[in-house]
Fold this protein.
Amino acid sequence: MLRINDILDRVQPYLSPTELEMIEKAYIFSASVHQGQIRLSGEPYLTHPMEVCGILADMKLDAATLVTGLLHDTVEDTLATQEQIEEAFGKEVAFLVDGLTKISKITLGNQEERQAENFRKMILAMSSDIRILLVRLADRIHNMRTLEFQTPDRQLYISKETLELYAPLANRLGINWMKMELEDLSFRYLDFEAYNELAKRVVKKQKKREEYAEEVRGIIRQEMERFGIRGEVEGRAKHFYSIYMKMKEQHIDFDEVYDLTAFRIILDSDKDKDCYEALSMVHALWTPVPGRFKDYIAMPKANHYQSLHTTVIGPYGERVEIQIRTRPMHNWAEEGIAAHWRYKEGGSFSPDDNQIKKLRDLLDAQQEIKNPREFMSNLKVALFPEEVYVFTPNGDVRSFPKGATPIDFAYSIHTDIGNQCIGAKANRSIVPLKYQLRNGDRVEIITQAGHHPSKDWLKYVVTTRAMAKIRNWVKTEERKKSVALGRDLLEKEFKKHHLKFGQISKSSEMQVLFKELHTESLDDLLAFVGYGRVSPKHVVHHFLPEEEVKKEEPVDKTRKKGPETEPIGVSLAGIDDIMVRFGKCCDPIPGDEIVGYISRGRGITVHTDNCIHVPDMDAERLVNVQWDVREKREYPVQMKIVCHDSKGILADISTAISSLDVNIYHAEINTAPDGQATCHFGVNVNNLKQFNKISAAIRKLRGVISVERIWRS
Ligand code: MN
């Protein structure tokens, strides 16, 4: 069992005494809270955080990371709290431990393979500090090393998750040894037979392979000396999983896998061109196999891996794979991102500029890095800053641009779910529709059949899909209403001339009109009229003899009576159907003389006949409308009362208003020095008659000078 002194010995060369003390303190804390807990292996639970810390120590990571390794399971699995950790070890460690507690909850479950990439991204996104992920990987390595104590079911489940989530993450961070170990361990549990068979055969050939490898290494070393190329040659057995994958992908048998050993030439130089020189040396020595050369120096892998790979026909006609790289390339290939968190000998960070650049690209960080030290200490790097990952109720992961809301989420599931969405839950609590989704949220949408989207939603969505769906719905809805309105307007206009629109709309004459308006269908024409693009008059003139058209008087906007057309009822029950709205400028109430105005795409706006805006309106778009009140409804109206500022008069006025069962929604009183008061009241009335009744009642009051209705403007 690993002891705390072993760990301290390992890190003592590069950590300060204060940091060593903190690690000891974390050890004592972890030991006390994990006290009494036992692992499945029968060992004390403490062995696990100790081993994890040991792995991190071997990677030469900083003190906060090592402390986090010791504490990583305390909040999740013991009575220790986040607050205790912060108090004892500070904000930085508390932040890292909290991150680990959170990502430990992301499990692959029984998800299909296609979901794995989303889960990987979610883990990356939630590892707002890369050290969280490094501890998580070390945690997984130790759990895999001790997987034999789990039940067969758990073994399969954890191995699958490791192979699909954690090995690729280690690869993405460029930590090759972790990737290989995680793959081999998972492979062993997922397909024990294949693993065992492979292991047996590799061992059987081992002695022969080793002799052969020694021979190849010797030849290369000799040749390097001859050409004055400085560096070392390695020959390592490939890891089982990569051999297995090769057999599977190329459909070959074990005996056909020749290159069980990967040879590496690691140059002392740090110049790319020296790699190509070494390559030509190798190709001069042995014949290259066509199509097997790969230049990862000119075109590095996504995780910044660089090397030249070639396969040649080596001694005894056997295929030999050779990789050529410089020392810095090699360090990156082996340790990847972890190399940047390590202390160099002498206790200081000294990553070179090139490595910093790689790291920055890798993390896709947008921020300006002023100096390496600052970068190292300021580790809150968002790996995918522009995306959030959330769960569906089934446990699927979906990604959205930052700022996305439950509405975006709803539309990503299905258009109907988006259209009928009335509310949402995140992690089981109700959230508003404009709530911004956060990483790891479990989102649920509440729908109601028959519910419709609203134009306002456009303010809260960020995905193009949701935007397009909402716009489309609004457009379709407006068109539907405009078609109905257009039909209504035309029927009235035709009736005025004793013509039947229904009949005429089917006549061939109609085609001529369609052509003129560049439309093809009657619905288009109706929508044009409903949108106010074509006036009903224009349409009807098409079907009238010329004399009659001339006879028609131009619209007189200053008229006191409405035009002599059959009025359209402003039916309240049917408000939605013909898109009627009331002018905010003049607050029409039933009983007022009114006029309708076709506003583009928004149906008819009703104004009072004497509204100050009417004279400026396009006469072609004015229509006659008439009240058709089937349902009692309240309309706002404003009144101005001038009275003497005598005691009790305001009470009298409000009593008069209230006694008629009318509600005052606004009141404002200004008293002038001469003792006169001007009161503005906003009241809700059913109609003009009721308003007049109130006015009359107020006028009768003692001290009241005048009562009048006013308009906002
Ligand atoms: Mn753990």
User: Anything to note?
Assistant: Residues 209 and 693 are 110 Å apart (CA to CA). Confidence is low (pLDDT under 50) at residues 343-353, 362-384, 556-564, 572-577. The pocket of manganese (II) ion is lined by residues 48, 72-73, 139 (CB under 6 Å).
